Amino acid sequence: MQSIINRIENNQFWKFHGGIHPPEQKFLTTNKPIRSLHLPEMLIIPIQQHIGVAGDICVNIGDQVLKGEALTAPSSPMAVPVHAPTSGTIEKIALQVIAHPSGLSELCIFLKPDHKDTWRERNICADYKTLARNEIVHKIAEAGISGMGGAGFPTHIKVDSKPNIDFLIINAAECEPYITADDLLMREHSATIVQGVNILKHLLIPRMVLIGIEDNKPDAIASLKKATESYNDIHICVLPTKYPTGGEKQLIRALTGKEITSGSLPIHQGIVMQNVATCFAIAEAVIHDTPLIKRVVTVSGQGLEKPQNIWAAIGTPVKDLVALSKSLQAADKKAIIMGGPMMGFTLPSDHVPIVKTTNCVLVPSEKELALENKEVECIRCGQCADVCPSRLLPQEMQWSAKAKDHAKLKELNLFDCIDCGACAFVCPSHIPLVQYYRVAKAEIRQQELLDLKAEKAKARFEARKARLEREKKERIEKQRKASEARRAAMEEKSGEGSTAKSAVAAALARVKAKKAQGKDVIEDPREAAPEKDTQKSQVAAAIARAKAKKAKAQQNEPVSPEENSVHPDEQVEAEKKSTDAGKSAKVAAAIAKAKAKKANSTKRDVETSETNKADDSKKSAKVSAAVAKAKAKKLQKEIGAEEQQPTPIPEVDKKANVAAAVAKAKAKKQQKEVGDDEQQPSSKPEVDKKAKVAAAVAKAKAKKTARNVTQVAVEKESMVEELQSEETTIETTTEIIVEPDDKKQRIANAIAKAKAKKQQAQPIADMASSNEEELPKEDNKAVAKKARIAAAVAKAKAKKQQESN
């Protein structure tokens, strides 16, 4: 530290790498005083004129504002407000092209001056030392001061730094050609600048203050030395003229010999740097309560008749400044550059407003700057790398910028480039290197912004996912605890010693008991089982006896009187069943009649042929019901007669038994098909025809196989017993069924089965009553053959029908 101070006191400074000596061209404006403030007809004030974020607009269209009144309010530490440069009316708030190399539009406030220049209320502080440190920082922030050397960094962030500052460096180099704004400011307002330096000293408490200035400004050097002669800790450091000495890192290197490495800041080395124009604005804000509403702008170039420095209000359009200096060129031919010839950029329009970082408006002549030079291929001379003050590789960066290789550009430390333009100045191929770098920087910043937004979105998504998972676990845990609580409440004993769980179980048992009591006897197996078992056993016994009789008849064995006799209980049961057979027949007739009516109503929209066939099926059903009823009465009488006079049972022909079985199967199938027709009116019409054919074949076979009246009686007795057993089952089923909606179909099937058996017995009874003679032998053979065929067909159909069911 002491060695640095010794070298500074002896004016022994360091040198930085690179640098150039372009034509200064400062003589155009250096001998002319600063012209007073000029107000245009309309001020265009961008809401963001610094590095950071824009403030919130706090005025509306049509509002009357006073000079120095804030137009925006800071919304974050990196935001500074903008103020009204004069009193007037807010005309509109709209997008406007701003001072930026991109030529993009930003939101601006349009203020129309009323030319009264009426100030808002101000609080002037003659002695800044009476103010607290935080009050001074607040005043600087409220004044909207940002770095006026070109970077635009919010000043209140810099001055509110940590202690242990070694050097406070004031940048007065102003190294770029043509620009003399700081030079004239130091000459005319050196005392105010020194007041700003003292305020910074009061805030930062540095060990030494260094004012770096180039030796091409003798008048400014003299003014500063005179203003600081009473301060031992302020040193005026006169440096040799070399561009870009005014760069932050280059000036620090020249004054202190310290290198600011890539990615680090001067504050990390205990150094804070401010521009002389910024020091002037700090003094105005803290002492006179004047916000940053104006600045000195150099309007120069050989394209103007009167180049000069002007106090320009923030928001003044460039065209008004050019008009004051009287352009020598036509409006459509002149090129306007904002900034110096090395770091400036061409404006897309002369309506672009002056902002806080604008220090120069350059209007060169056609011969002054080689604007017509066209870019050609790089010849790899390496001069750009030799003059780069940041020790970069401009040639490789330009290749990577053209290829949009952002990763490579970061490796080459693109953001260490200060856009000084030294590389482009010495390039023999006239390549605008600085323009490539600026575009690449903008693209990288945009991509980083998108990446940052993506990261924030990802973080929000992960947070939402974690929150949903946490809420899900909480719900599961809550449900588990509630379930345990309910279980504990169920198992907890009441005052009477019972639990809620047992009470619920008892209630469920009572409900089931009531439901069981409301059902028929069949729902209770304990009551229905004995009676049902008894009936089944009787039916089984009757069927067994009938089968035994048939077996002996087939073997030509005599039947014993015991087998031929009827058990008293069975006889009583048979009488009972015979009596009820008539009732069953009546029930069957009523059901058949109801079904016929239902089928008739359903078949109204069917075609005429199908309707006629369905009607025939219904008539057959009615005839079958009437026949069943008549047979039941006749069988009842015959049973009574047989009880009084037993009939001997002769031998039964085997073929007759076979024919009877075939007829029985066909009759069952016929009855089933008739029942299906009653339920489905659109069934096949061949049912009646098949039934008639089967009946005729059965009748022929019966005539052939009937040997005598005794044999017919035996067959009739067997049929009666089987009929009684079937009717017993039907009656039992009819008596115990109480749910007609669910079991109506089964009742109809049982009744149809009984009617079929009765129809089967009818040909035999008719044959016995008519006592017809046997058929001729030739006819008998043909009928027997047909009977066998019919029996085989009926058997196959019955098997097929059984499989389909």
TrEMBL record:
- Where in this chain does the record put each 4Fe-4S ferredoxin-type domain? 367-398, 408-437
- The EC class name is translocase
> Which E.C. number(s) belong to this protein?
7.-.-.-
Q: Which GO terms describe its biological process?
A: electron transport chain
According to Swiss-Prot or TrEMBL, what is its membrane topology?
A: Peripheral membrane protein
Compositional bias (Basic and acidic residues) spans? 468-495, 517-535, 564-580, 602-619
Q: Which GO terms describe its molecular function?
A: 4 iron, 4 sulfur cluster binding; electron transfer activity; metal ion binding
Amino acids binding [4Fe-4S] cluster 1: 378, 381, 384, 427
Family annotation (InterPro entries): 4Fe4S_Fe-S-bd (IPR017896), 4Fe4S_Fe_S_CS (IPR017900), Ion_transpt_RnfC/RsxC (IPR010208), Nuo51_FMN-bd (IPR011538), Nuo51_FMN-bd_sf (IPR037225), RnfC_N (IPR026902)
Q: Which residues bind [4Fe-4S] cluster 2?
A: 388, 417, 420, 423
What are the protein's UniProt keywords? Answer: 4Fe-4S, Cell inner membrane, Cell membrane, Electron transport, Iron, Iron-sulfur, Membrane, Metal-binding, Repeat, Translocase, Transport
GO CC annotations, alphabetized: plasma membrane
How is the cofactor bound here? Binds 2 [4Fe-4S] clusters per subunit.
Which cofactor does this sequence's record say it needs? Answer: [4Fe-4S] cluster
Q: Where in the cell is it found?
A: Cell inner membrane
Note the PROSITE patterns from the entry. 4FE4S_FER_1 (PS00198), 4FE4S_FER_2 (PS51379)
- What does the record give as the function of this protein? Part of a membrane-bound complex that couples electron transfer with translocation of ions across the membrane.
Q: Which family does it belong to?
A: Belongs to the 4Fe4S bacterial-type ferredoxin family. RnfC subfamily.
- What interactions and quaternary structure are annotated? The complex is composed of six subunits: RnfA, RnfB, RnfC, RnfD, RnfE and RnfG.
Protein name per its UniProtKB record:
Ion-translocating oxidoreductase complex subunit C
What's the source species for this entry?
A: Thalassotalea algicola
